[in-house]
Design a protein that fits this description.
The chain is globular, with a radius of gyration of 17 Å. By secondary structure, the protein is of the alpha+beta class. The protein is built from five helices and twelve strands.
């Protein structure tokens, strides 16, 4: 066994608050964010935000769609989902409670982390719905967390997805219009 891990620094939220640039913090380890995404990635993210916002505006006063907002998971873990839906009091700064739904739009540089580390983190933190959107393959994988196991199961693939977020709040996503570019 190597002695190197005991010499690795362990950063906290206080350290994170002082950093310049774009970072996430994973169990005390800083992770540099990739450069800003390309056009297709951003266009699809914008379409998802628009569709979710429109559907929530029609039936819900309690849930909000946020774009690239830091979620402070713990004292040593901060992540920045592409899109998050939070319910309850509007977060004035960072997200501090688990979002009800998170979307990550895949890119070659983030796909591995989105499919593994973030999937595990979000399930462990009780995020009810997790969506992986592939702008190149023009497909979406939607997962719902099973409360009894704490694990995600794949949701059936349909042209229209609806996510019940409680108290009459439903976020809808029409996949037919999502991948038109």
């Amino acid at each position: 066994m190597s002695a190197i891990p005991k010499y690795l620094p362990h950063y906290t939220l206080a350290d994170y608050a002082l950093w310049q640039g774009d970072w996430e913090l994973w169990q005390g380890v800083p992770v540099a964010m990739t450069p800003s995404p390309f056009g297709r990635h951003q266009w699809i993210a914008g379409q998802i935000v628009r569709q979710f916002s429109n559907s929530l505006d029609a039936n819900c006063d309690d849930c909000f769609v946020l774009i690239e907002t830091d979620w402070i998971v713990s004292e040593d873990t901060v992540v920045r989902p592409d899109i998050a839906i939070v319910c309850g009091p509007f977060p004035e700064r960072h997200i501090v409670e688990p979002p009800r739904l998170i979307v990550e739009v895949l890119s070659p540089s983030t796909e591995e982390k989105d499919r593994t580390a973030k999937l595990e983190l979000y399930a462990a933190q009780s995020v009810e719905f997790y969506l992986l959107v592939d702008p190149i393959g023009k497909c979406i994988e939607a997962f719902e967390r099973v409360a009894t196991t704490g694990k995600y199961v794949a949701m059936p693939a349909t042209d229209m997805l609806a996510f019940g977020l409680g108290s009459n709040c439903v976020a809808r996503l029409d996949l037919r219009s999502l991948f038109r570019v």
